[in-house]
Specification:
The complex is a heterodimer of chains A (about 375) and B (about 950). With about 375 residues, chain A is mainly beta. Chain A has helices at about 1-25, 250-265, 335-345, and strands at about 30, 45-50, 60-65, 75, 80-85, 90, 95, 100, 115-120, 125, 130, 140-150, 155-165, 175-185, 195-205, 210, 220-230, 240-245, 280-285, 290-310, 330, 350-355, 360-365. Chain A folds into three domains: about 5-130 and about 250-295, no CATH class; about 140-245; about 330-365, no CATH class. The longest helix of chain A has 23 residues, at about 1-25. With about 950 residues, chain B is mainly beta. Classes of the chains: A mainly beta (about 375), B mainly beta (about 950).
């Protein structure tokens, strides 16, 4: 009896105290850090590939730099050849800046055929293995779902873009996606000689890959592509995403998987130990030389989706505007000394209009606030379908 | 005369009496008194007798002032008159050899010391009893050991054999008086012979002595020393119970004391008492024995979240962690923050860094042997405690008093709902918890048969912000039967089972729902024998056989929506057998040699289908040339290694010694882990046709010195080589891979260093300070250069920390207050930075090639704790205590890892630390 009373007392007293103590504990802390990295290796980078879309195909050759350096050195006088197995081969033309392209009417990759890249730099000869161009199934559906994602300091509101795809022949199995975003945005301060509505552009750089090797059926449902949130202007007017789906080989998939593990999903307690990753390019005279990059060979399918701001009218997204620090002043009268004063502060002339006899001048603190070409282009992108 | 001077007189008289013990005795009593003093005052008689001769009377006048002589029969002998006069009034008289008469009340003064003290007694006695002339000599066979609780003289053995030549053995058990728990490492010492021994894990000791009289001291820190004067006739047994010293509530001293430092035979052994571990400042209030082991020299960790530890440059799977003799495969809870052992049930732990006895084997670098307590054989006791993370209760008591006892301890988290209040969404949407249970039944079937059964179960589950759930559990059962054929020949038979399982699953009603399971079971039978051949040789021999069954990868769909293709890899089976023999040889009083030989064999058995690879090509999936199928029980691959364990100790003088040791070890089981720390999906892999066993050897020399003020110091240096370490190729896949051999590669390791330690074990201030300088290097140089890591050159291992300093101080401020401080400083661990950035497919990517070329910033941490005991009444029902700890007092954000993230367009470096602020915790304990 005595024993039980004691134990109950302990739990009652300790409970609230325990919560307090636990909440004092800071979870793991991640901060930006720029260590001095003195080692660097200058290795050949092969960034190129062929796809099922018509050419030209480009291969970019550079020498890598250390991570503190900013510039890579292009390799300008290499001989680059793409050849089709039991078929034609074409030597690519260099542009003097490390880029090599096929001719417009040159080699065109065909499904089912195998292709190889070979490069000669000085007296070194590199080549890839024979890469087969596998057919790519179409995108069944490209769509979005409204989602909130928790973040470190706040929660994010926005849309998660998904796709569905499948291969009835169950042979594709390995996929990679890229996307191109274009969107309309406007600036808060109108200006007579600057466009207020522009088009911004972004092409994806993160690694988005998936495989269905573990599934019976080669199908992907609700595969996440990207998350567009309320901290950008993408969804404020009209947004377009062009999705490019690649069907890749198992070997290329493994390469991307290894790069992703070491480049992107880091910062956990169980980060993998970094190791050397090899692509598919080999120096035939010295097979142990590290060659960075990969000669990709994949057929593609694309799909496009537009998202308008109207679609959120019933459940609006509250955007964090990049224009929150914009400030403007309306000054009436010509030769108003206020204008000169504002100019001295570094403000700029945004607009002048005539209201009857009076000249009305608008001053703003940054051209970013009234000239949308500072963040985009006035010309719509190719194939843009307005609403 | 007052009472005080009366007593003083008596004392003086006794002293005189003793000093003239051999004088003649009876004469004064025979003096004839010719007159009659009947009814006269007694004083008159006294005056008369004193005037006649050399008689003096000594008495207190108040005794006799109204006394009248009774002398009815006329003239008589003085003795007769005194008898009749004094008898009725409760007065006694005694006559000293000098002829003086002393009159006392209530009892006579003894004028002689009992003969027994000066002559060889004929009868056996236990002190405390009055001697009686009726006792007959009783032979004391081994089974009839005597227990006693006080100082005194004890006769042991068969007196008839007292004149036989040669030495005899004295053995027995030393137990704690309060609960019957065996005392490990208690010292039995005979000063005049300068010889002694320590009790083993069962509290058993055996000494070889010449026959005759000896003075033996039984001591253990924190207990009252017992000194026994014995008369040893033949082989005999003597059990001793040691009582707690009540004035010292805290057994804060380390048991591996002076005796072990200089006299112990082995290098590289650390023994920690659990009470000492409990005083150290604990992270989150949880006493953690593995973290305590990290404070010892030669033991490193990769980081705070790692439960693995590295001993003298070995990998974390090279430590054999035994809990009641059964191995534990995953020794941590909750991502590695806490160890999986409940401190309330542990009795002590020993870490062998080198100098492993031949009875241990199966891992290359170390053995951490943890033994649990025995249940209290006398009374029921309850111990409970609560910390911010867990609550725990341990109950123990007798089932049959002094014969069978039980112990049951359980510890569990209650923190699920606390996690829900944390701001960070990663933690808020998580679910984590664990519990563990330890039980033991100890029984003494007879004086020479002991049976112990223990069970252990630990369970963890966590689901971080993602929807993948991780669950794992450890379980073990140990049964041991200890039989004493004689006091010199002891056998112990063990049957053990140990299992580890994990289950990773995701269930969101989508097609990718899966469950991934892993399991390994270990079944072992082990007979061990000890034979005390003679005073110079202790022989130990035995064997052990382990049968492993492993389920490496069971990947299945989960739920109706799942479309996963199951991948269930074949189970693996293996048999690991070893036999050993060792001899502990006292070459002389200064030189002692331990030589042990262990021969281990490994059979990898079917049923299994294995892949075959081309000989001159690297082991890659593209080089598979075929498969081979083996039926059940068929031998697929056989490995064997001889293992040598040698230790030599030379005692220069009682406070200085040199020790030298050499050992070799083989390991047939490997942990597969692709991260620097133990991850929840790490698995254990059996050696097979392609994956070779690891093996290593180590040579170690040490110099040990005991200084004044109870300070011990030692310096140990070592050099170690390891072969067949497993390293991983870039992009290695360890899950759902039915040809793991293509993703691993063998390397070799070397480690060397010097460990300095200074310890103070007694007094108000205790603790130790250690400094280790060490290097730990790995080389992966394959036949095929592209597989090499670091171009085939040696590179630092992930836990290579050249400088490591640990300081532990414990101050007993008062009997209720105790302050403890830890200080740890070490060089930062090595880390790999990318050596190149390259643009590829519209993003900037990183390339790594040189391994561990850089280091994170140095690690420094200071912890403090204060333990406050409840009031000190020794007879109250329950005793409680509070423990307040501040972990990382300086709030240093020790870097755990540095990594680079390429977000496509840019590369940004980050550093991550686990605890960037001081962490304060309070724990409450109560004991009934």
């Amino acid at each position: 009896m005595q024993l039980r009373k004691h134990i109950i007392l302990i739990w009652h007293r300790a409970g609230p105290a325990a919560i307090f103590m636990f909440s004092l504990i800071n979870h793991s802390c991640i901060e930006e850090y720029n260590p001095k990295v003195t080692e660097s290796e200058h290795l050949l980078i092969v960034d190129g590939g062929i796809t099922s879309s018509p050419g030209p195909y480009t291969v970019k050759l550079n020498l890598s730099s250390g991570i503190q350096e900013v510039v890579t050195v292009p390799v300008t006088d290499a001989v680059v050849v793409i050849e089709e197995k039991d078929g034609i081969s074409e030597t690519l033309t260099g542009d003097g800046q490390g880029g090599y392209s096929t001719a417009k009417s040159g080699i065109r990759a065909r499904e089912g055929r195998e292709y190889r890249l070979s490069i000669q730099v000085d007296d070194r000869y590199y080549e890839s293995g024979w890469e087969q161009l596998k057919p790519c199934p179409p995108v069944d559906s490209l769509y979005w779902c409204r989602e909130q994602h928790p973040g470190r300091s706040m929660d994010y509101d926005g849309i998660q873009v998904y796709i569905d795809t499948h291969d009835p022949a169950n042979s594709t199995r390995y996929y990679r996606w890229e996307f191109i975003e274009d969107w309309v945005f406007s600036v808060p301060i109108s200006s007579s000689w600057n466009p207020s509505v522009c088009y911004a552009h972004n092409s994806s750089s993160s690694i988005i890959i998936a495989s269905t090797e573990r599934f019976q059926i080669d199908r992907l449902v609700k595969q996440p592509i990207t998350y567009v949130d309320h901290t950008t202007t993408r969804l404020t007017l009209r947004y377009r995403i062009i999705l490019i789906q690649h069907a890749i080989s198992q070997e290329e998939f493994r390469y991307w998987e290894a790069i992703e593990k070491l480049n992107e999903n880091l910062g956990t307690l169980f980060d993998p130990i970094p190791a050397t990753i090899r692509g598919n390019m080999r120096n035939t005279g010295n097979p142990d030389e590290s060659v960075l990059g990969y000669f990709t060979c994949s057929s593609v399918r694309t799909d496009t989706m537009y998202v308008d701001a109207e679609e959120f009218v019933n459940d609006p997204i509250y955007f964090i505007s990049p224009y929150s620090y914009c400030n403007y002043a309306v000054i009436r009268g010509e030769n108003n000394p206020d204008i000169a004063r504002y100019l001295k502060f570094g403000w700029l002339l945004a607009d002048t209009i005539r209201d009857g006899d009076v000249l009305v001048t608008t001053m703003a603190n940054s051209s970013f606030c009234f000239d949308c070409t500072t963040a985009g282009s006035a010309e719509p992108p190719v194939n843009w379908k307005p609403r | 005369m007052n009472l005080y001077s009366h007593n003083r007189k008596i004392f003086l008289i006794i002293f005189l009496a003793i000093s003239s013990a051999f004088r003649a005795y009876n004469q004064p009593a025979g003096i004839f008194v010719e007159r009659s003093f009947d009814k006269a005052p007694f004083i008159d008689l006294v005056e008369f007798l004193e005037s006649t001769g050399n008689i003096r009377f000594f008495y207190d006048p108040t005794f006799v002032d109204t006394l009248r002589v009774i002398q009815p029969d006329g003239p008589a002998q003085m003795g007769v008159i005194l008898d009749s006069t004094l008898h009725n009034v409760n007065l006694y008289y005694a006559i000293t050899p000098q002829g003086h008469v002393i009159i006392t009340r209530n009892a006579p003064v003894l004028t002689r010391v009992p003969d027994a003290l000066f002559e060889t007694p004929v009868v056996n006695k236990t002190i405390g009893e009055r001697f009686s002339q009726e006792e007959v000599p009783v032979q004391v066979p081994f089974n009839g050991t005597q227990h006693y609780q006080a100082n005194g003289l004890v006769e042991l053995g068969n007196p008839a054999l007292r004149n036989e030549p040669g030495k005899v053995s004295l053995s027995g058990f030393i137990k704690e008086y309060e609960n019957g728990e065996p005392m490990v490492g208690a010292i039995v010492y005979i000063e005049e012979l300068s010889s002694g021994t320590a009790t083993d894990l069962n509290g058993y000791y055996i000494l070889s002595l010449p026959r005759g009289q000896h003075r033996i001291s039984y001591q253990n820190l924190g207990k009252e020393t017992v000194i026994v004067n014995i008369q040893l006739y033949s082989n005999a047994g003597l059990n001793i119970d040691l009582k707690d010293k009540l004035t010292e509530l805290k057994a804060v001293e380390i048991i591996a004391d002076k005796y072990q430092n200089v006299s112990g035979i082995q290098t590289g052994i650390e023994r920690l008492e659990i009470s000492r571990v409990k005083n150290l400042p604990a992270l989150m209030g949880e006493t953690d024995i593995v973290r305590a082991a990290l404070l010892l020299p030669g033991v490193q960790t990769v980081g705070e979240a790692s439960s693995g530890f590295h001993v003298r440059g070995g990998t974390s799977d090279q430590n054999l962690i035994l809990f009641n003799h059964a191995p534990v495969f995953n020794s941590s809870h909750l991502f590695g923050f806490f160890s999986a052992f409940n401190p309330d049930v542990i009795k002590n732990l020993e870490l062998f860094k080198s100098g492993m006895p031949a009875s241990y084997g199966g891992r290359v670098s170390s053995v951490l042997d943890i033994t649990t307590k025995q249940g209290n054989m006398k009374n029921m006791a309850v111990n409970a405690g609560i910390s911010p993370v867990t609550g725990r209760v341990t109950v123990e008591g007798p089932i049959l008093k002094d014969r069978i006892s039980y112990l049951a301890g359980i510890r569990a988290t209650y923190s699920d709902w606390i996690l829900g209040r944390i701001k960070d969404p990663g933690i808020r949407n998580s679910d984590a918890g664990f519990y563990d249970f330890t039980g033991k039944i100890s029984s003494k079937i007879s004086n020479s048969n002991f049976l112990d059964l223990s069970a252990y179960y630990s369970n963890d589950r966590f689901r971080l912000n993602s929807d993948t759930t991780y669950k794992y559990d450890n379980e073990s059962l140990s049964a041991s039967w200890k039989h004493y054929f004689s006091e010199k020949f002891i056998a112990e038979f063990w049957a053990l089972y140990s299992g580890y399982r994990y289950n990773v699953s995701s269930h969101k009603e989508v097609m990718s729902d899966f469950s991934l399971k892993y399991g390994i079971s270990h079944y072992e039978l082990k007979p061990e024998f000890s034979y005390f051949l003679n005073e110079r040789h202790i022989l130990r021999f035995g064997a052990g056989s382990i049968y492993y069954v492993m389920n490496p990868n069971d990947f299945r769909p989960l739920g109706d929506a799942s479309d996963i293709i199951p991948l269930v890899l074949e189970r693996e089976h293996a048999l690991e057998t070893a036999g050993y023999i060792s001899d502990e040889y006292d070459i002389s009083s200064r030189l002692k040699l331990y030589s042990g030989f262990r021969y281990s064999m490994y059979h990898y058995l079917g049923p299994k289908t294995v892949y075959l690879y081309g000989h001159d090509a690297p082991m890659e999936e593209s080089n598979i040339t075929g498969t081979n199928s083996y039926p059940a029980g068929k031998l697929i691959k056989f490995y064997h290694y001889p293992e040598i364990r040698l230790s030599l100790r030379y005692k220069i003088n009682p406070s200085n010694s040199i020790k030298l040791s050499y050992n070799s070890n083989a390991q047939y089981l490997h942990m597969l882990s692709n991260s620097a720390i133990i991850a929840p999906t790490d698995t254990w892999k059996l050696s097979d046709l392609h994956i070779l066993p690891q093996h290593g050897d180590q040579i170690s020399i040490g110099f040990y010195k005991d200084m004044p003020y109870n300070i011990e110091t030692s310096v140990e240096t070592y050099y170690k080589r390891i072969a067949n370490i497993l390293e991983y190729k870039g992009g290695a896949r360890l899950i759902n891979n039915d040809h793991i051999e293509t993703d691993v590669i063998n390397g070799k390791g070397k480690a060397y260093g010097a460990e300095f330690i200074m310890r103070k074990n007694t007094g108000r201030v205790t603790g130790w300070l250690s400094y280790t300088w060490s290097r730990s290097l790995v080389q992966v140089d394959s036949r095929f250069d592209f597989e090499d890591i670091n171009n085939g050159k040696y590179y630092p291992s992930d836990y290579d920390k050249p400088h490591d300093v640990s300081g532990v101080v414990n101050v007993v401020i008062s009997r209720r207050l105790n302050l403890s401080s830890n200080l740890v400083y070490s060089t930062g661990r090595p880390i790999s930075y990318p050596v190149a950035r390259f643009p590829f497919k519209n993003g900037i990517r990183l390339h790594y090639s040189e391994r561990n070329a850089y280091r994170v910033p140095d690690y420094f941490r200071w912890d403090l704790s204060v333990n406050v005991e409840g009031n000190l009444k020794s007879t109250k029902i329950a005793h409680s205590s509070w423990s307040f700890a501040l972990y990382n007092v300086t709030g240093r954000d020790n870097v755990y890892s540095i990594f680079f993230i390429s977000n496509g367009k840019e590369i940004q470096g980050y550093k991550m630390s686990i605890f960037a602020v001081p962490v304060f915790t309070a724990t409450y304990n109560i004991r009934f």
